[in-house]
Amino acid sequence: MGGTQNKPGSSANNATSHTSGVLEKQLTLDFGLRTKSALRALRTNENRNVRIHLTRPDDENKAGIARANVGRETGADILLSIHFNGANGIARGTETLIRPRNDNVNFAEDTALAERINDATYGAILAHDAGARNRGVKSERQLAVLSDRELGNTVTYHPLRAVLLEVEFIDHQAVDELFSINSGYEQVRQDICDAIAVALLEDLRCNQ
After folding, report:
1. Do residues 101 and 139 make contact, with C-beta atoms less than 8 angstroms apart?
2. Cβ count within 10 A of residue 108
3. φ, ψ for residue 79 (rounded to 5)?
4. Alpha helix ranges (H) inside the chain
5. Calpha distance 135→118 (Å, rounded)
6. Model's pTM, two decimal places?
C-alpha cells in the first residue's frame, strides 16, 4: 500500500485509525522505517553482515508481485510485509499470515518465522496494554506478496521465508490511543519494532 492509486495485490490504503485518522499506509511506512533502524542498531558482531531493503522507502504503492520481486532480486532470506487490520471497531489482536501449505514449498520455515514475529509483536503490545490479543498464525489466504513464484522459491530451492504481519486493528479505539494518541505512543511503536527486529535476527540465526 501507499501513494494514491491501487495496484494489483496492493491497495493505496485499507484501514483508517478510529479517532486520530492516521492511515494504515502511514503506520506501515513508519513501522517499516523504525524496524529498519532497529535492525541497523543490532548490526554488530555476528549480525554485522545483515542487509536491509525496503519494498517502499516513501509514500508510494507497488503491486504485491513487485514487492515479492524485491525479495527475490536482492537475494533476501526474509520478506516481512507489515500491515494493520480494520474491521468493525470491536475486533482487535495481532496475527501473522503465510501462504497455505498446498501452495507453499517452505511452509514449515514460514510458520516458524511467523510464530516468532507474531509472538514478538504481541508481547511488545501486551507490555503496554493488557487488552492485547494474540490471534496467531493463519494460512488461509493466497497473497501476491507471499507468492513462491514471485519470491523465487521452488521445491528444490527455497531460501526466502515470507510472512505478512497484521500488527493490530487500528479502527479499535484503544489501539488508536495506544499507537497514535496517548502520551508515549512513539515509545510503544518503537518497542514493537525493536521486538520485531530481534525476532528477525533470531530467525536468521536459526536458518544459517
Report:
1. yes
2. 10
3. -120, 120
4. 24-41, 64-73, 107-126, 148-151, 173-176, 185-206
5. 9
6. 0.97
Residue 48, Cβ neighbours under 10 Å: how many? Answer: 8
Q: 58 by DSSP, 3-state: which?
A: coil
pLDDT digits (tens, 9 = 90+) for 29-81: 999 999 999 999 999 998 999 999 999 999 999 999 999 999 999 999 999 99
d(CA 205, CA 208): 5
User: In percent, how much of the chain has pLDDT > 70?
Assistant: 100
Tell me the average pLDDT across 77-102: 97
Q: How far apart are CA 118 and CA 110, in angstroms?
A: 12
- Which residues, at least 6 apart from 91, have a Cβ–Cβ distance to it below 8 Å? 85, 169, 172
CATH number for domain 24-206, candidates 3.30.70.360, 3.40.190.10, 3.40.5.10, 3.40.630.40: 3.40.630.40
DSSP code of residue 102? G
> How many whole angstroms separate alpha carbon 190 and alpha carbon 112?
23
Q: Could you tell me the residue ranges of all domains in the chain?
A: 24-206
CA max distance for the chain: 50
* Burial environment of residue 36 by CB neighbours within 10 A (0 to 12, 13 to 18, 19 or more): middle
> What is the spatial distance between Cα 199 and Cα 121, in angstroms, rounded to a whole number?
9
Among 173, 183, 93, smallest CA distance to 138 is for 93
